[in-house]
Structure formats: structure tokens, C-alpha cells
């Protein structure tokens, strides 16, 4: 049986993680402005990363 490699992170996901490392208490709205995406998108993306154990 082969080990399954964890999925690679996208540039957008890496940018979100980087933003949270720089400003861990930033709101979704602040991160959304910085990443040029809707705050709801940021929250959903973080939720997926968290569910996958990547954040």
C-alpha cells in the first residue's frame, strides 16, 4: 500500500496562511482586502484548510 501525499497548497492558500502569520488577529474583511478577495471567500478557504489540518 502506498502512502498518500497531502494535497499541495495553492498560491491563494499560501497567501492566506502568510497573511495570518503576519496578522494573526486580522479580520476576514482585512485579509480579504489584502488578498483582493471577498471576506466570505477568505473564511471558507480558511475553513477548508482547517478541516484538512493544513492550518
From TrEMBL:
Domain HTH asnC-type positions: 14-49
> In terms of domain of life, where is this protein from?
Bacteria
Lineage at the top is:
Bacteria, Bacillati, Actinomycetota, Actinomycetes, Kitasatosporales
Pfam families associated with the record: HTH_AsnC-type (PF13404)
Give the protein's recorded name: AsnC family protein
- Give the matching InterPro entries: AsnC-type_HTH_dom, WH-like_DNA-bd_sf, WH_DNA-bd_sf
